[in-house]
Specification:
Layout (H helix, E strand, L loop, with lengths): L1 H27 L5 E6 L12 E4 L6 H10 L4 E6 L6 H8 L4 E6 L3 H5 L1 H8 L3 E4 L4 H8 L3 H11 L4 E4 L1 H4 L4 E3 L13 H6 L8 E3 L10 E4 L8 H13 L6 E6 L3 E5 L4 E6 L3 E6 L14 E9 L4 E3 L9 E8 L2 E4 L13
Parallel strand pairs: 2-6, 3-4, 3-5, 5-6, 9-10
Antiparallel strand pairs: 1-4, 2-11, 7-8, 10-13, 11-12, 12-15, 13-14, 14-16, 16-17
Length: about 350
């Protein structure tokens, strides 16, 4: 009888251990990501056309999303974000004919490490990175299978897009915002011009590997938030730190986008301006706690329907001028001294 009771206790203990392990594994299997899908639940494969939709933020631009949808061949459209919900799904469904629209929310590295995340990107025929905080994209996604899957998508000619923070991570160089306080004010032009080595001037390298955006940094919400000063500081720091021999910048206004073809030709759409800046000369003064001096920055400002050759970094359209910074003050070669342009008549 004792042996029988001992046997029953052992069996019961074994059953309890199995239940515990099953419960533990089920809790561990709860995904860190959120996934919302609308349209056909089954993936399809379509012939895609490469292209990059670079959106400056603010209200979403129908022409830019339609351009991405067309290049997807009507396939599966995927939105990536670190926080938020599926608000893009009905919007894109309303303006595009695609097989499906899905939103994948990855709020931490565990989500980006989940095999489902990279698989979702591999199965997409268009990928759009939403706005938010680019520090989350760098902190959560860089160095994970998500980063590799995005670069693989570029290599297989999948159209890629991004707005606001999603634009910020498109170039070879990225203002990462990793030192910004949560929910704090944006890094401003005056504080960076006064101190180019401000601790919040954080620049990382090559989240995405797009040859057309090599030696390029981007900025968003450009004239609305007066970001020219900080853009010039980013460019000066990249040169000063020896990260590139020359540096280029695409700075895009709100409600404006640059649609970049694989051959390097870009077209501006929307209500504002897109600024294409270039500098090859190192700053004269770029050191901690000292106002910046940085001369000879060439600018080409374009508006809707005007085109720019990114491969050659040139255009005969738009407005051409030069900027210089003297002891933290920006000077322009435009007749009225303006640093931003208004739409030409």
């Amino acid at each position: 009888m004792r042996r029988y009771r001992r046997f029953l206790r052992l069996v019961l203990a074994g059953l309890l251990l199995e239940v515990f392990l099953l419960l533990s594994s089920s809790f561990a299997a709860d995904p860190h990501y959120k996934y919302f899908r609308a349209g056909n639940p089954a993936d399809i494969q379509t012939k895609t056309q490469a292209g990059v939709a670079l959106m400056g933020g603010g209200d979403d631009l129908d022409p830019a999303f339609k351009w991405m949808c067309e290049r997807s061949g009507g396939g599966d459209f995927l939105i990536l974000r670190a926080h938020g919900d599926d608000e893009y799904n009905p919007y894109i469904q309303g303006i595009c004919k695609v097989n499906s629209v899905a939103t994948l929310v990855m709020p931490d590295r565990a989500a980006a490490e989940d095999p489902f995340a990279a698989a979702a990107i591999r199965n997409a025929e268009a990928v759009f990175i939403a706005g938010g905080d680019q520090a989350n994209y760098i902190n959560f996604w860089m160095g994970t299978p998500v980063q590799q899957a995005l670069n693989d998508a570029l290599a297989r000619n999948v159209p890629i897009g991004g707005t606001s923070a999603g634009l910020a991570v498109q170039g070879e160089f990225i203002y990462s915002a990793q030192a910004d306080p949560p929910d704090g004010p944006d890094l401003s032009s005056p504080e960076t011009l006064a101190n180019p080595f401000h601790p919040r001037v954080t620049i990382v390298h090559q989240f995405l590997n797009n040859p057309l955006l090599k030696e390029v940094i981007t900025d968003t919400h450009f004239s609305a938030r007066d970001r020219l000063g900080r853009t010039l500081v980013f460019m000066a720091r990249i040169l000063q730190d020896g990260k590139a021999r020359h540096i280029r910048d695409m700075a895009i206004d709100e409600r404006t986008a640059v649609l970049l073809e694989p051959g390097g030709m870009a077209t501006v759409v929307g209500a504002g301006s897109a600024y294409f800046l270039q500098a090859s000369q190192n700053p004269e003064t770029c050191k901690a706690n000292t106002p910046l001096t940085f001369r000879g920055v060439a600018v080409r400002s374009l508006h809707a329907d005007e085109r720019f050759n990114v491969s050659q970094w040139s255009s005969n359209e738009g407005i051409s001028y030069t900027l210089s910074v003297e002891s933290g003050v920006i000077y322009s070669s435009l007749p009225d001294g303006a640093v931003y342009t208004t739409k030409s008549k």
